[in-house]
UniProtKB/TrEMBL annotation:
Domain (Cobalamin-independent methionine synthase MetE C-terminal/archaeal) ranges: 443-765
Name assigned to this protein: 5-methyltetrahydropteroyltriglutamate--homocysteine methyltransferase
Organism, scientific name: Saccharopolyspora spinosa
Residue ranges constituting the Cobalamin-independent methionine synthase MetE N-terminal domain according to the UniProt record: 11-326
Note on how the cofactor is bound: Binds 2 Zn(2+) ions per subunit. Binds 1 zinc ion per subunit.
Gene name for this UniProt entry: metE
Amino acid sequence: MTQITPTSRATVYGYPRQGAQRQLKKETESYWAGRGDADALLGTARELRLQNLAELRDAGIDEIPSNCFSFYDHVLDTAWMLGAIPERHLAAVPDTTSPAGELDRYFAMARGTADAPPLEMTKWFDTNYHYLVPELGPDTWFTLNASKPLDEFAEALEQGVRTRPVLVGPITFLLLAKDPIGTDGFGPLDLLDQVVPLYVDLLRLLHEAGAEWVQIDEPALVTDQPADVLAKVADTYTTLAVAQARPKILVASYFDRLGDALPVLASAPVEGLALDFTNAAAANLDGLAAVGGIREKRLVAGVVNGRNIWAADLTAALSTLSALVELSGSVDVAASCSLLHVPLDVTLETDLDPEIAGWLSFARQKLDEIVTLRRGLTEGRAAISNVVHLNESRLASRAASPIVRVPAVRDRVAAVTDADLHRTSPYGKRCEAQQDRLRLPELPTTTIGSFPQTQELRKARAALRAGKLDHDAYQEAMRAEIRAVIAEQEQIGLDALVHGEPERNDMVQYFGEQLTGFLATQHGWVQSYGTRYVRPPLIVGDVSRPEPMTVEWATYAQSLTERPVKGMLTGPVTMLAWSFVRDDQPEGATARQVALALRDEVSDLEQAGISVIQVDEPALRETLPLRTADRAAYLDWAVASFQLSTAGVRDDTQIHTHMCYAEFGDVLQAIIGMDADVISLEAARSAMSIVADLARAGYPNEAGPGVWDIHSPRVPSVEEIAGHLRTAIGVFPSDRLWVNPDCGLKTRGYPEVRATLANLVEATGQLRARP
Ligand code: GLN
Ligand code: ZN
């Protein structure tokens, strides 16, 4: 029986920013290109904020957030608000007296200028949203610029809406900052004493402007934090709370459980807490019970998943809410995190089967779910029974759908044995068979897969989509590109070649379009960073491969050369990480299905005579759970699904994998467990330190540490590359080393690709000739 709590409110923490017609992206990009002026951009931004305000209000959201709009990124906005602007960006745009000046300096931090590189970018927790990493050092001097939160609050108040401003919290902001190099003994949290007084000032200003509540986001508290950091959390929120004139404080957490931070926040003198009750529901419920509830505080319950695209189970959410009513002073209903992470509106998807559309819920639909649940709490379940019945029947249709559960796929997954996860022979034996077949020289050279995506390739794809180029002409254009890429590589003198991936729009989308169980959207744009939006595929049902996906391209490329051409696939973990994944079975189960589909592709490539097959897993580390305790279970299924996709080949077929990120520490054992014959890794920016790490961890197979940082057009010299190789050979057996760039070359231009690969081949030659 649902308890009735008349005071419950419906709320969210943020909403998609760019508008239904992608207006913000278009206006921003035309501002950058010099086609539109600052006033036009500011005007569009204001219009979009007012539209969102109206949309949320009309949907029945009782407490609407503000300051969740951004021209680029909310962490950058926070750095801006605190005056944490690097010297080089101040110098790049010295005059900010006009609106254009302000925008230009802000965008200089985000995108860089000719002489001032931008802030680094990295993933926002375990999402696919990227934030700009604040650069803080012992000399950082903060000054408060509260205009954005104040203006956005005032703008909404003029419309008669008293919003709840949303701020990135001081602890999270500092923990997300970069640890500056060469400042031993300094950590960004050392700046807390300087930052907290600015938040006190900001709270006073918001109070004077009329704010009753403020939301302070501390998602960093869902990651493991040592006791000294938790002590700082307690101090910080005590200081903020004792400040005299201020709005009530809601401390928000999302993406995972609060864990040890829960008792700290529960006893802090703030007025409200927001917790994630989707994936972290059980742990957060237990945590609240363990502290005896928070009866003096407002609880904002994130019961509607803000990160996936599935219709909520309203009955289950209601029962979570009822349990929470027992544990807190008041319960409000919210999405688990900002709705920024989901597409805007399912009703825009006109091609979608209406039955499937009923299973889905994008940002706009989630508002309705939240408001319905709030009504369930304030008016009783009977008041929403119609909606709940419809919801139940849609969930039932999904559960019973032949798209969702395909017996043949399930039988096949059930029949997987441990033997399917392991190659027939150990690496030592495979290595001999591969050497006999491939006859590669010492320190074989290769690239990671993609070659530059030229303007012509993009045009050909656009023309195909627009119906201006027929299928055959498109195929021929791709074949011509493959011929050119193979010829380039032969001329440069590389050993293991690639076909260049010209036919792929994106390494996940390309396969998603060909696999049963995946679904593409027309308008499902989600912000990746700045004005870059992606349309992740949805995994709605059991996955299978109706027919070969890459064999034709691979065999064509191989027919052009005597040297081995690598077959190129995207691994199961990355396929999941860059899609919206089904929520009705463990991710590991979905990964196994994808793995079996890939296993068939791997086997077809082998049958077709492809001797080297690379299965990329660049996302393996980014989906690592936020809490350390959850990582082993994740890595278990991640490694097993990679093995399942690759272990079915003969000894003399060489399996490669590829990963690219700065930090491998957490996944070294997983890399060993994957048992690829060769792994290529990003290494140039960290001066090959990964090679020593691999050696220390006892990694037994072959490795290709990247010798070229492909993130910039800079051409490394022969000496520089040879230096990297000498470093690697110094710590790792040279007969197990490969030579390759850090990652694919699709974002690079031909001039630097030709120059660098020539240097790479020459440097390798020098090392082969060493005494
Ligand atoms: N094979 C892909 C490429 O070369 C790998 C991309 C990646 O690691 N993100 O583009
Ligand atoms: Zn890569």
